[in-house]
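Standup notes
- HV: blocked on the assembly model, inputs below
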Amino acid sequence: MKDLARLALDTAAARGAHYADSRAVEVTREDIQVKNGEVGGLDLSESAGLGVRVLVGGAWGFAATDDLTKDGVERCAAQAVAIGRASASLTHENVRLAPEPAHHSVYASKFAVDPFKVPLERKLDLLFRIDAEMRTVKGVRNAESSLTFQRRRQFFLSTEGSDIEQTITRSGGGFASTAVSDDDVQRRSFPQAEGFHQSLGYEFIESIPFVENARRIAEESVALLTAAQCPAGEHDIILEGSQLALQIHESVGHPTELDRVLGMEANYAGTSFLTLEKQGKLGFGSKIVNLVADATLPDGLATFGFDDDGVQAQRWHIVKDGLFVGYLTSRELAHRVGDGRSRGCVRSDGWHHIPMIRMVNLSLMPGSGSLEDLLQDSDKALLMETNRSWSIDQLRYNFQFKTELAWEIRKGKRVRLLKNPTYQGITTQFWNSCDFICGPEEWKPWGVTNCGKGQPGQVGEMTHGAAPARFRKVQVGAGYED
Amino acid sequence: MRRDEAKSLLDGAIAAAGGEEVEIILGGGTAALTRFANNEITQNVAERRYVLSVRIVQGKRTGRATGNDLSRAGIKRLIDQASAATRLQPEIADLLPLPGKQEHREIDALDPGTETLGPEARASEVGHAVGRCRKAGLAGAGIYEVRSGTIGDYGEISPLAIANSRGLFAYHAGTSAAFRVSALDGAASGWAGHESHRAQDIDGDALSGLAVEKALRSRDPKSWEPGRYTVVLEPAAVADLIQDMAWISFGALLVQEGRSFLSGKIGEKVMGENITLRDDPFHPLHRGAPFDAEGMPTVPTTIIDHGVAKSAVYDRQTAAKEGRESTGHGLPVPNTYGPLARHLVLEGSQGSVADLIGRVDRGLLVTRVWYTNVVDPKSVTLTGMTRDGLFAIEKGKVTHGVRNFRFNQSVIQMLRDVEAMSAAVRSGGVVCPGILAHGFQMSSATQF
């Protein structure tokens, strides 16, 4: 594969590219699902191909192919150059790449147990045990559980001399119970909605108490059918970590992507309210809010040695003591915020798509105290757990989330289960209302595996670490008010 | 990949399976997309990608392996992997044997001019569009995309050809072209788009003109209070809402499991009499694949007939449970999702969106919606934002821009409250009209 990547570079350069990089990528996956006592899906998949990105006349061209013959690769590189020339006919300024040393490196994520060497029977056995445990609960309509394993090996070569090999292995899984009545569908998931994933091996799966939680989760899904409706109005809310992770993703991560800020996603994902003059000036959140981007976070889904610009992984503040201070940047756009070096946020979801700015791992730094301490500090509040739906406007001001359940908190105690909790707000007002963040003992690196962005659309993966936190006077109940 | 080449490849794969009961799905093709923003080209890409998926059936066991190495050795490896995975699995009680040979109606959906449209031609069309934006002092952003084959919006791949060891073979080739443009003046924006199986139907200049007009009208928007409004939803907005409803409602498995609003309601009036909703790949604006991922012929299916719930869409497994025939809406087997309506048609009426606006005394014109998501599946209550042109309608005329709203609205209720519709067009993969509906709930405002 590396030889093919080299051939693509040489062809692009010979045809007039003044910069080129090529990524030869091999991806292997296992996707296993069990539903209601039977295998619901089992797909072993592999994909190999090559993407070539060029600058010609100061403009980008990109082509990708799965024809990995010499002719196929040369044709692909030539196509990228031809596309770049067409781009150059309609650009204002030449693309300027921020300097980055040429890197020669081999990087591999760590794991103790190779998930692809664990027998399929063992994986199915785990899923069937989870499934059986859920189905002991009367009223469960659907018991669904899944495991996913992925290994991505990539060679990145550039005409600037970088030669980087990276292999990243990730494992994840989860389960959900659904209960239905004539007019209602309720769902509970574990450990988070859409499964919990990290860049680790099968030891990660074995560390999660799936079976131990299956019955409780199933019971909660059935109990929600007859639970009281979450009351509408202004409430203090406590968000459990995995819901807070998605809040971080939507209201902090996306608006700090510099390509969005500069209008490059305007037709699709949108732009951002975090315009350039706000950097270093906007009070994004309360003083206890610290948000850190970190491509070096141990075992994160966006943890790597180098991004797809060939830039070394970094860690920096996005929000420091409540102040908005940083963007997610690329080599192409770093100079637009006065930076001499990219922050290293460029990734592609495969060999077939062009790299672009994607969130790296972005986490809310822990405060202090346990969840129990936070509840004890709350005379009257709603504790909301596990995401069920999400939506935010294209400038990232107005958001609305629904969680699977809420607990009514009175004088520090969970007194009542509530269904259909939704909350809605405006991003900076919300983060400025944060007055309690639990400590490191409650902090977990929650994963997002379905982040959509770009045209053609790409699916990104990243980790958002968070501990439960409290937000004051939040509007609750949209969608169920009348 | 042309029919003969695809058939030869699939026949070879079946032969390589050496008598196993096997199903082979081939998907993929080529896709190219020119992306622009701030009146210049910012990304410009092309890909060629094919995927082969092999499913082995051994009695009540089945396993799948998928890959993109289409060489003889690559195909053999997939067969071996699928076969090994199948042997390790427990039985699936209601797994059906592979279907036999089927008859499929041909659909003319391949336009050679679209298939070969190059980056220069796309740049030229984009040039017209951004020229229009620049002249108006606005920033133009958008895409011009052409595809041949079955690569989807997010890189997902659906069947181009399918064959099995019982003699079934199905093939469908098609092209698509889409141009979408936003014109921006700060937070004020307008949008227009068009999609067809032929690139020659694309007029970037005209679309840009529509987007510019909307953006200029959107300047200095006024704040209206959240509440229930009479709305005129343009087809792009209707398409988004209908598509979301289809995903959570129209598949037979959802209905059988009690998770759809259609559960227990077949034969009952659920929407207004003016609402007829079908799934139909043969509609001239769709020209979609005439078969599903099991190779079964897709039968045009009326889901809502003049407001009455008529039928869900079926795959073989859900059809067998009810002793009926598949309607050809299956996904790759096995799956946990069930069948899916993929070619939605909401029947429209005569006239234009402008005619609908003329009927409104006071209300809102919604260009499109954004980031819709399900709040409540049984009532099909969706939330989302208005986007790229929300306007006041007063005494039959568009009078000024309005700051965008978040909505929380039951789509079923909306389709009970439709007063009038325009002619149907294709938008976002759905054939639908603009609609005039009453009581649409705008629940909170945003900052622009």
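- HV (later): unblocked. Chain A touches chain B through 94 residues (CB under 8 Å). Chain A has two domains: 2-226, 229-476.
- Next: hand off to the docking folks.
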